[in-house]
Amino acid sequence: MKFTNLLAGAALMFASTAVIASPMNIGGVVWDPDTETNLPSIKDFAMHGSIFETALEGFTPGQIITGQGKAERINFSTNNESSFCPGCELTFTFSMELVNASLTDFAFKDLALNFYIDTSPDFTGSDDGTSDDGVLWLSLALNPANFLTGGGTNIGTGSDIGTGGGVLDVIGGLAMGHFDSNGELFGGDMVLSSSFQPLPGTNLLSGTFDLTGKSIPEPASLALLGLGLLGMAGARRRKA
C-alpha cells in the first residue's frame, strides 16, 4: 500500500508539473509560466517594457499624471515581442493622482492601469490613441492598502530621475482570471516597478516598467488534472 501511495504521489507531481509547464495563450499573448531558459531567477510571469508619462509640476497634491507604454518582453531578458505577441502588440495607458511629493520622494493614489492587445501594431509612444485602440487584455488598480511610492532626484522640476512601485489588484480584462491570485503583499495580485528620467525636448518622462505576478492555469488544464486524479483514485480502489 505504501508503494502504491508513493506511485500515486509521483503521478500527481508529474501531472501538476505538466499543467504548470504548458504555455498559456490568452487573447494572443503567449507565455510559459515555467520558463527558466533565459532568466533562471524568473518564473511564472514577468513583463518588461517602455513607458512615457507626463511630469509633475511642483508638489501640489491632486495633480493627475497620465501615461502610456508598450510591453517588449515577457519571461525573457531581451525583446521577444514577436514570440509572446505574434502579429500583435500589447500596449497600455494609466493615470494616477498625486498625494504628496518633495524633491526626493513621492506618493500617488488611485492608479488605474489598462493593457490592450492590438492586432494592428501602430504604437507611437504618444498620447494619440495608439496605446488604447485594442481589446482590453488586463485591467489593474492600486491595492487600497498601499500607495504607489518612490524616490529620486529633482522630483517635480521637469528633470525628474527616479524609481517607483506598488502592489496592484486585477479588476478586469480578458486575462483577469489568470492573474487574480491574491498571492502578493496585502493580498494583491501583481507587483509594479518603474524607472523614469526626462525625455529631451518634451515635458514628458520616459523609462521602463516591470510587472510580475503568478499565473493561474487554464480551467481546461485544471479539469484535465482533476480527471487524472479521479482516474488514479478509481484505480486504487479497484486494486484494493
Sheet-strand content, in percent, reads 35-45%
Number of E strands: 11
Q: Look at the helices and sheets and give the structural class.
A: alpha+beta
Could you report the average pLDDT, rounded to the nearest whole number? 86
State Rg. 21 Å
Taking the sheet with the most strands, its summary is:
9 strands, antiparallel
Number of structural units classed as domains? 2
Distance between the termini: 9 Å
Report helical residue fraction.
Answer: 10-25%
Uncertain residue ranges: 2-20, 220-230
Indicate the overall shape: globular
Q: What is the H/E order?
A: HEEEEHEEEEEEEH
Tally of helical segments: 3
Lay out the secondary structure.
Layout lengths: L1 H20 L2 E3 L2 E3 L13 E10 L9 E11 L6 H4 L4 E13 L3 E14 L16 E8 L5 E6 L7 E12 L17 E9 L5 E10 L5 H21 L1
Antiparallel strand pairs: 1-2, 3-4, 3-11, 4-5, 5-6, 6-7, 6-8, 7-9, 8-9, 9-10, 10-11
Helix pairs in contact: 1-3
Can you describe this structure?
This protein is α+β, with helices and mostly antiparallel strands and 240 residues long. It has two domains: 1-22 and 217-240; 26-216. It is 19% helix and 41% strand. It has helices at 2-21, 81-84, 219-239, and strands at 24-26, 29-31, 45-54, 64-74, 89-101, 105-118, 135-142, 148-153, 161-172, 190-198, 204-213. Strand 10 (190-198) and strand 11 (204-213) form a beta hairpin. It is globular and about 50 Å long. Residues 2-20 and 220-230 have low confidence and may be disordered.
